[in-house]
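Hello forum,

I keep getting stuck at the same step: I have a sequence, I want structure tokens, and every attempt I make locally crashes halfway through. Rather than fight my setup again tonight, could one of you with a working pipeline run this one for me? It's a single chain of 274 residues.
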Amino acid sequence: MSMPFYVSPEQLMKDRADFARKGIARGRSLVALQYADGVLFVTENPSQALHKVSEIYDRIAFAAVGRYNEFENLRIAGVRLADMRGYSYDRRDVTGRGLANAYAQTLGTIFSSGGEKPYEVEIFVAEVGEDSSDDQVYRLTYEGRVADEHGYAVMGGDADTVSAYLAEHYTDGASLDAALAVTVAALGHATEGGQTTDRVIPVTDLEVAVLDRTRTQPRKFARIRPARLEELLGDRGPTEAAPVESQAPDVPETPAPDDGGTTGEGEPPIAPPL
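Reply #2:
Ran it on my machine without issues. Output:
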């Protein structure tokens, strides 16, 4: 009788963490940034069909990086939880903190389970308040850790380079156009081979959404379309799309009409590069 192969718990958790981190880093960065009227979400996303930023409830938004099919399942579960809680009790009982805690439990359980691979995702759950001091942005990692972010936060892709740029240029309480300009510039700021380069990302490759507390309707989430982005960003010079080879690993193939969004090879679509 052969002896079973033994792996220490420490090594097992390290291997699972490395696996999840590599999957998340293959995409492109996503930024959540607080501005004067709420919370701004910006990411580079060439796909017009697969959104990485979505609405969860009246004042709550969800943003994620990593494998699309995995964080889409989490988004749908969050919407169902929020709707059930709001219907059973009161809409004011649906909070970003409650959803963040629920996501943390789910991700932590999946990460520590030996029966399935860890989710290759990181998540933002944001809630806009009556004023800037009440705004909340929670960041959840693949192993279920929760961090309360302030000012700005970056996840996915070359997050360190984008964070370093924002640390130098971020201004608290900025207007929407100023906050959008510095965020888009940060996403176009990259370090390759020890050299820093800046490129102008086309507005058609940007996915931008806000939680705007000044909106008169109860639902505070809104997407900013390319025409509006052109007005807010102004003339930035000639644009430069991302290299084709950097997009290839994360851009899904054209889905079959009836396969529920899976590729022709039977694999689920992967989140567009961040």
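Residues 244-249, 251-266 have pLDDT under 50 and may be disordered. If your local run keeps crashing, start a new thread with the error log.
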